[in-house]
Amino acid sequence: MKKPDYLILVCNSYRVAGDAQGYCNKNGGADFIQYIAEECADRDIDAAVTSTACLNVCAQGPVMVIQPNNLWYGGITEDRIDEILDALEDDEAVEEYLIAD
Ligand code: FES
User: Fold this and answer.
1) What is the fold of 6-97?
2) Which residues line ligand 1 (CB under 6 A)?
3) What residue segments make up the domains of the chain, in order of their start?
4) Does the reported pTM lie above 0.85?
């Protein structure tokens, strides 16, 4: 099996018990997964896109993480995702959307 170049995680606020709920889920988390997957395909970015449980940075959500680059982005929107993926094509980050340490 060929592993993808990137793993893109989108917080969808899953809790250990019960349905997805929480900031990222309520602010587009589920819809972003398909959007990111389609945008990666359009750009020939070899990425697996998946959702996660709460990443414990809710105040900065909705959140997406790009591995192995360890880029944590907050406040994502479709426009920001476009910018982030454009930058990823150039192996760069969009500094202003990164979650501060
Ligand atoms: S719900 Fe997304 S970081 Fe907590």
Assistant:
1) Glutaredoxin (3.40.30)
2) 11, 13, 22-24, 54-58, 61, 63
3) 6-97
4) yes
